[in-house]
Amino acid sequence: MGLISTEQTTVRGGNLLDTLCARLEKKLSYQPGERDLVMLQHKFVVEWQDGKIETFTSTLELYGDPKGYSGMAKSVGVTCGIATQLLLDGHHAFNTPGVLAPYKKEICDPIRELVEKEGIKMVEKLVS
User: Fold this and answer.
1) pTM for the full model?
2) Where do runs of H (alpha helix) occur along the chain?
């Protein structure tokens, strides 16, 4: 990436972090036709009551559109937009006051179902 080189760089913002960010923006920007890839995998090792052990994976593979939104923008933006719309529509799972973390089935399921309709889906597999 040329971070440790003799090439001169332009100082931005008067500090090292802003200067590094400017350099990375220049070096890591997408070229025409390029796209990003979002990969996410959860691995679960389950020991059942009978002692049997199984491993499950849940994997997301999402490509960005070179002529549209990045995969990261889609995965974050669509999910946030759906959660916001459910809140505005008065969905019963969002009636509790305060900050709600999506850890409960009644919050997760409606969001997940709508996100999947947008083509953003985890693929679950039994590995062993």
Assistant:
1) 0.74
2) 16-28, 71-88, 105-117
Residue 45, SS3?
A: strand
Q: Which residues of 69-89 are buried (b: 16+ CB within 10 A; e: fewer)?
A: ebbeebbeebbeebbeebeee
Which residue's structure tokens are 């937009």?
81
Q: What CA–CA distance (Å, rounded) separates 43 from 51?
A: 19
Paired tokens of 3? 């971070």
Tell me which residue has tokens 């200067």: 19
Q: d(Cα 90, Cα 30) in Å, to the nearest integer?
A: 39
- Amino acid type, 79: T
Instruction: For 3-17, write each residue's pLDDT tens digit.
Output: 788 888 778 888 999
Render pLDDT for 53-85 as a digit per residue (tens, 0 to 9): 999 999 999 999 999 999 999 999 999 999 999
Q: Which whole-number Å values give the CA distances from 77 to 1, 80, 102, 120, in the listed order?
A: 29, 5, 16, 11
User: What Cα–Cα distance (Å) separates residue 108 from each residue in 5, 94, 103?
Assistant: 47, 11, 7
